Known about the structure:
Blueprint: H1 16-20, E1 26-29, E2 49-57, H2 60-70, E3 87-92, H3 94-99, H4 104-108, H5 112-116, H6 122-125, E4 147-153, H7 156-170, E5 176-185, E6 208-210, H8 243-246, E7 250-259, H9 261-271, H10 275-286, H11 304-308, H12 332-336, E8 355-356, E9 359-362, H13 372-375, E10 379-387, H14 390-402, E11 426-429, E12 436-439, E13 445-455, H15 458-466, E14 468-470, E15 473-475
Helix pairs in contact: 2-15
Amino acid sequence: MSRLASVSCGENAMPLVDRLGGDLPRTPVTVELDDIQATVLRYRPEPYYGTHVMLHVEDAQAGREFVQRLTPYVDSAADWWEAGDAWTSIAISSTGLVALGLPEDSLRSFPEAFRVGMAARADKLRDYGPNDPTNWERPFGTGEIHIAVSIFSDTEDKWRRAMETAGQQYQGFSGVTVMLMQDFGAQPGDLNPLGYKDSIGQPAIEGCGVDSLPGQGPPIKAGEFILGYPGEAGVPLPMPRPDVLGRNGTFVGLRNYQARVGTFNRFLREHAPTEQERELLAAKLVGRWRSGAPLTLAPTQDDPALGADARRNNDFTYAADPHGRQVPLGSHMRRMNPRDTKMALLADVNVHRIIRRSTTYGAPYDPDATSEQDDEVARGTYFIFLSAKAMATMEFLQQEWINNGNFMDLGDERDPNVGLQEDGATFTIPQHPVRRRIHGIQTFNVLRGGEYFFMPSLSALRWIGELRQSSGQADERAEPS
């Protein structure tokens, strides 16, 4: 159980075992769960409360001492499917590893895209126009964010107690400064800023103790998500050196999207005259009704009970819908996980999957918001994704599946949810006998910042905390047993 909360899992807690009900199908554990940070495998609670704290390290020794002090409060992924208490995670940016004084050979062992940061990869990520890093909110993209501490909880009370514990490690601590603090969660119905139930459909990971859940498909090799294990190609991916630093770690991408709720609501009203038609159009954009019910299983009307049922709401394929008449080929859900869809440009779906831990912040969705001023209300999503090759995967998704349509024979159509739309952009809804093409789709989520982080194992956090300075260069101590 979490060191941050002494009470047991309460009635409102929604760990995976509670969401699905009954016994989970168990499989042998072949990864070192007790060394992997809990956030890598533990599902976001429902309801959920939490905070992201972005910190700047001004003094290497103080930064390492902070890591050392906080590490005992970071939970492991052991029994991740049962946990319901609050937990804390630590992730470190490339500039943060430098600020903490890691050895040069360790720094050089990280992938180039990670070392230069998300802002420097804007061209590869297709972050143009309003999404360009020059328009990001500080401190994103400046290199000033060194450590990200995130706290997740299923109740407000446990969240506040966890925050107090974490705060004791950095408040008034010379050499470590808070750059940004963002509370998240607690939205009515746990909906995202555009009114959708989200965080459905995570990948199944081999060797993590739980078999594939309904609709997940065969487990994906652990090395696609956690460093030190074979991936889908049969070999482990390169990882940072020394082994104690890289093994059981993963990479994290964070993209902060401002929701343009006024623009979204105006779009629905302009293209659908009735409330029922607007809800169907909203479902076609994503591939699910806003309750979470998939269009494959509820093609003509919403089914909230289906959307709330974790054993059924992801249990489908696209085999009976090859032309996208139920779920448009260009919908957000079908782009991000094509499943068994036949694609014009072939790609191995398994090597492009990501673990998602996105969080919603700010004002809740307002169905009556239609003005430009409503677009500027502080509400949005921290799109958080984890993968052993998060940088390469996100660049592929941004280039091919989000901001392009060729892989689905859709030309230059873009993802209707997170795609950066150009003037005159369209969205196609296949119908019989004639498809419907909607013109003038807008950008509904604008990028306000982003960072790449490395989420070390618990052993690696201890190793970082025990580094010592010698002649201006950090020396490695013996690897912990």
